[in-house]
Amino acid sequence: xxxxxxxxxxxxxxxxxxxxxxxxxxxxxxxxxxxxxxxxxxxxxxxxxxxxxxxxxxxxxxxxxxxxxxxxxxxxxxxxxxxxxxxxxxxxxxxxxxxxxxxxxxxxxxxxxxxxxxxxxxxxxxxxxxxxxxxxxxxxxxxxxxxxxxxxxxxxxxxxxxxxxxxxxxxxxxxxxxxxxxxxxxxxxxxxxxxxxxxxxxxxxxxxxxxxxxxxxxxxxxxxxxxxxxxxxxxxxxxxxxxxxxxxxxxxxxxxxxxxxxxxxxxxxxxxxxxxxxxxxxxxxxxxxxxxxxxxxxxxxxxxxxxxxxxxxxxxxxxxxxxxxxxxxxxxxxxxxxxxxxxxxxxxxxxxxxxxxxxxxxxxxxxxxxxxxxxxxxxxxxxxxxxxxxxxxxxxxxxxxxxxxxxxxxxxxxxxxxxxxxxxxxxxxxxxxxxxxxxxxxxxxxxxxxxxxxxx
Length: 456
Known about the structure:
Layout: H1 2-15, H2 24-27, H3 32-39, H4 44-65, E1 70-88, E2 95-115, E3 120-133, E4 138-153, H5 157-226, H6 232-267, H7 292-302, H8 304-327, E5 330-343, E6 354-364, H9 372-438
Antiparallel strand pairs: 1-2, 2-3, 3-4, 4-5, 5-6
Helix pairs in contact: 1-5, 1-7, 3-5, 4-5, 5-6, 5-8, 8-9
């Protein structure tokens, strides 16, 4: 829902020019567009979100690179051993202790590749080994010029890989929208802090104006009191109101300074380098009414919640499918083909290599385990149904939140129009009352509004 403010409220505020965009370099003011479009995007919170988004992109890039050939080189330059080892004779089974006094070296190259079409893994290897028997002053070489190996599970690997691919691509799309939503939330908070500063400046200006007005009334009332045209009670009433307005002015000044400090602190700017913020009176021309259809369009287009709902559904289906595979008949297939050779010299170890072939098939047959498999299947189905119910319930709440937000906006706009009218009437009433008091046609009890209409 926070993304709604970026897609509707903030663009509307910028397009209708809520505040005059004055360059900070010329007059020291921070305009709304500068705060939202520039400073908020470089705030500490925005930099943290950007780093998190970079991590998400790197994780997705690692997933895609997992389907590229993986090349690894292994090397053991020297392995030395001198010890007494126990050796059993093949002819009579007796044990003898012999001296193992040797050194060895090895090097190998391995290439591994996932096969998306089948879900299996294909690998190719080559290696060379050297053995130096120091006790006999004899050395030898063994090599595997090449060997190819393929392995996979007979059922389930291909579909599991496809489901994982769909989830990862949707998660990457969700991460993009989550990053946008996070930045919009930062802009929304910045907008709120900026508006707090603006409202505090209005209260400061209004309290200053009210204090000046009551000071003028106090001087006039003092003259009239000396001429015995008003009573002592009326004079003290105006004097008390003047003191109250002076208190309100001092409090409004402190609130304004605190609001500015909160804004600057959130943006990560040294307050010593920023002049005091002053804000012009804005022309509030936000849309008088927004429709739920328009809001829903932007949300469905940009909000990550819907993608998260789809990802959770796919993950639940993947978990259910994995539990079904575990209960079914399955087999692990491993096949390999290659060449190897043994020789006393390096030049002969690669000549006329012999073939090396291997095929292995392992079966997994889930026989009855006193109903354990049936219980596991029922648990998996119940978890799947529970996830679907939770997802649908959260989506219904999400739809209700859209309706509440739209209704709150439309209701608040109506209240603002009413409050603006009441504010203008109260100011006019105050002006007329002051004139009537100066002419002696009104009592000294004058009520002065200290709330700007926007706060209402």
